[in-house]
UniProtKB/TrEMBL annotation:
Residues 287-316 are annotated as: Disordered. Belongs to the DHHC palmitoyltransferase family. Residues 296-316 have a biased composition (Polar residues). Its EC number is 2.3.1.225. It is found in: Membrane. This is Palmitoyltransferase. The chain crosses the membrane at residues 45-67, 73-92, 171-194, 214-235. GO terms for cellular component: membrane. GO terms for molecular function: protein-cysteine S-palmitoyltransferase activity. It catalyses: L-cysteinyl-[protein] + hexadecanoyl-CoA = S-hexadecanoyl-L-cysteinyl-[protein] + CoA. The gene is ZDHHC3. Its main location: membrane.
Length: 316
């Protein structure tokens, strides 16, 4: 085995027989169609529960501390509808990001039969992941938490208990956007509520006691500020990653660009769907990406001029 001295971070095996398909057992029998994707990771599950708890805490403070006790019914109704709609979309986006297959490559498909079925031509390249024994497409990386190779894997996010990849990046971007919006909205309402309570009697501006009201508002203010900064940064980095068509892992490893360069608008449509519409902002709309077969695309994009160079590789 030879280590290629470039930034690909792959262990290249020069001959096709070194793929060692005989060491790979056939992939397990696929589950029923529509089986829910869920990662059984204790840390990720705990982070997902905390995420829901913090959103519901903000919901409680906004409704029962600030809006319901308010005498301005128009203010309460408008802000209540806006905040609840954004919170609902944030939690729906979180569920879609967590329960959507991010683009997992079929596990254990690096068998002799499957490799022969690819009908590799001289000059074509395939990569094998020794960890999950899969023939993986170009730009796929192995996740040690999901224990799968993920197409266009950006990173593994414990807050959604899933990888952010080709199939669920839209939902992750929407999740960060809606969390940032409800955090900003909550901070603005907290500011107005403090001003109202300073001008009025504290005992009349909330159904709770003044000390309890202050503690609840300060905690919400701290939570909103923290998550506004965090999710805004994540939203910005994700949009930049989409526009440049370069995942977080590819940026970190400074991998050589081996795929066709497209415009920023085309990259956005590749993630959010064709054509542009209000469905881009909906976590319930599955983007129509018009993706080609990943194995064919991988093989075609990795053609070389030298004969007999079909080869396998280790994980990234």
């Amino acid at each position: 085995m030879m280590l290629i001295p470039t930034h690909h971070f792959r262990d290249i095996e020069r001959k096709p027989e070194y793929l060692q398909p005989e060491k790979c057992v056939p992939p397990p029998y696929p589950g029923p169609v529509g089986t829910m994707w869920f990662i059984r990771d204790g840390c990720g599950i705990a982070c997902a529960i905390v995420t829901w708890f913090l959103v519901l805490y903000a919901e409680f403070v906004v409704l029962f501390v600030m809006l319901i006790p308010s005498r301005d019914y128009v203010y309460s109704i408008i802000n209540g509808i806006v905040f609840n709609l954004l919170a609902f979309l944030a939690l729906a986006s979180h569920c879609r990001a967590m329960l959507t297959d991010p683009g997992a490559v079929p596990k254990g498909n690096a068998t002799k039969e499957f490799i022969e079925s690819l009908q590799l031509k001289p000059g074509q390249v395939v990569y094998k992941c020794p960890k999950c024994c899969s023939i993986k497409p170009d730009r796929a990386h192995h996740c040690s938490v999901c224990k799968r190779c993920i197409r266009k894997m950006d990173h593994h996010c414990p807050w959604v208990n899933n990888c952010v990849g080709e199939n669920n990046q839209k939902y992750f971007v929407l999740f960060t956007m809606y969390i940032a919006l409800i955090s900003l909205h909550a901070l603005i309402m907290v500011g107005f509520h403090f001003l109202h309570c300073f001008e009025e009697d504290w005992t009349k501006c909330s159904s709770f006691s003044p000390p309890t009201t202050v503690i609840l508002l300060i905690l919400l203010c701290f939570e909103g500020l923290l998550f506004l900064i965090f999710t805004s940064v994540m939203f910005g980095t994700q949009v930049h990653s989409i526009c440049t068509d370069e995942t977080g892992i590819e940026q970190l490893k400074k991998e050589e660009r081996r795929w066709a360069k497209k415009t920023k608008w085309m990259n956005m449509k590749a993630v959010f769907g064709h054509p542009f519409s209000l469905s881009w902002a909906s976590p319930f709309a599955t983007p129509d990406q018009g993706k080609a077969d990943p194995y064919q695309a991988s093989s075609a994009s990795n053609e070389r001029t030298s004969p007999g160079s079909a080869r396998g590789a280790g994980s990234q």
